[in-house]
Amino acid sequence: MPLTVNAALAGLESTPSLPSLDIDTRLLSDPALKPVAAKLAHGQRLDAEDGLALMTSKDLLGLGALAHAARLAKNGKATHYVLNRQINYSNICGNRCTFCAFWRELDGEGAYLLSPQEAAALAAEHPEMDLAELHVVGSCHPEMGLDYYCELLSALASARPKATLKAFTPVEIEHFAHKEGISTTEVFERLMKAGLKAMPGGGAEVFSPRVRAELCPSKTSGERWLAISGQAHALGLPTNATMLYGHIETPAERVEHLLALRDQQDLSGGFSAFIPLAFHPENTGLNERARTTGLDDLRVIATSRLLLDNFPHIKAYWVMLGPKLAQVALNFGADDLDGTIVEERITHTAGATTAKGMTEEELRHLITSAGFVPVRRDSFYRSLEQD
Predict the structure, then answer these.
(1) How many CA atoms within 13 Å lie on the side-chain side of 48?
(2) Which of 29, 156, 298, 318 is the most exposed place for a label (fewest CB within 10 A)?
């Protein structure tokens, strides 16, 4: 059954005005893509049946042709990146998700919790970098109260006053509220006073109740993840959205996930970007599974661009894809490579072999050598390019 975002969505009858895409159907070898192409050529919104055709097609060049046309219509040749640093404040987590290699027990080997001062010291490293964003995510710590997270934001803001604080997923927000016995709205209000300006999109995983019951039964439900994102949007906090794919989900569950995000975006309009996250199985409870293939990665990115017609940006997260495949993804609907990152921990504990960070020069080279135009941005997709 498709995920219900909100009962209010039942009354939505209008859809966004979509451009008519210029598509050369001779590039399509999969007959199932022809009806999809016809809809796109007439500016019509795709449905679940179309999404499944895209998500199961092996016509990689055809998928690329469709998604690239949508990418050009929305963003042209512009390809975005940000000078950012990730701060993973703790790996101590009570959720114990099967797919996660990052979490540790409270007193487990390798468990850590950064003090606000330690986190601020990390943020202050590399003062020559004109960081536009601090990307702050961690865990659902069983003991820390909201005061810690407010102090964390305040310390980071002092260390990098020019950097936007993009912090905490809807899962973390829900956890803070339960821990304090207050509403998520109250949590948002306190965090915003401490400096919160935007939110990342982690914790969405796959919204399917079947998948969540098996892999992350203690985690916030898909419905709550969407609702909390909507609350953030109503308060003026832009957020991202994600999907973790390549574990036990079906193609249909991927499509349902994307359509639920599209419905929420119709309702609240605050998602800035969608980031497909390729599952890395090493050191997880699913370590017997093979990694995703290049075909699957590009297919998910292309399908995302085509189904998420109301999302401004699709990100090719180079940490998970690898720089070379992320570069190819720019021709499959993606228009953002994320950023410099400096020190990524979560994916690398699951076996990622990519670098933990990338220089601005490397990012710009990936973009320009693929024939696109690099656009250094801030957290709100405002250009920071020098005239």
Answers:
(1) 14
(2) 29
What does the pLDDT look like over 94-113, one tens digit per residue? 888 988 887 888 888 989 99
State how far the Cα of 333 lies from the Cα of 306, in Å rounded to an integer.
8
Whole-angstrom Cα distance, residue 90 to residue 140? 9
Strands 84-88 and 133-137: parallel
Residue 151 contacts by C-beta under 8 Å, 6 or more apart in sequence? 116, 194
Q: Determine the Cα–Cα distance for residues 154 and 159; give it in Å rounded to an integer.
A: 9
> Per-residue pLDDT tens for 327-360?
999 999 999 998 887 654 555 354 445 556 788 9
pTM of the shown model: 0.92
Helix (H) or strand (E) holding 79: strand 78-82
Q: Which of 203, 126, 137, 207 is nearest to 160 (CA)?
A: 126
Number of H helices, E strands in the chain: 14, 10
Helix (H) or strand (E) holding 277: strand 271-278
88: which 2 tokens? 């993973």
Backbone phi, psi, residue 305, to 5°: -60, -35
* Distance, CA of 38 to chain centre: 29
Distance between CA atoms of residues 365 and 361, nearest Å: 6
Give the whole-angstrom CA distance, residue 272 versus residue 287.
32
Are the CB atoms for 333 and 306 separated by under 8 Å? yes
Q: Is the four-CA dihedral 190, 191, 195, 196 of positive or negative sign? A: negative
d(CA 258, CA 264): 10
User: What is the rounded distance in angstroms from the CA atom of residue 53 to the CA atom of residue 325?
Assistant: 23
Beta bridge partners of 14: none
Choose which CATH entry (3.30.565.10, 3.20.20.70, 3.30.70.20, 3.30.1300.10) describes domain 76-377: 3.20.20.70
Going from N- to C-terminal start, the domains of the chain cover 20-74, 76-377
| Tokens linked to 20 | 């008519």
Q: Residue 192: phi, psi to the nearest 5? A: -65, -35
- The bridge status of strand 271-278 relative to strand 78-82 is unpaired
| Strand 336-339, strand 78-82: pairing | parallel
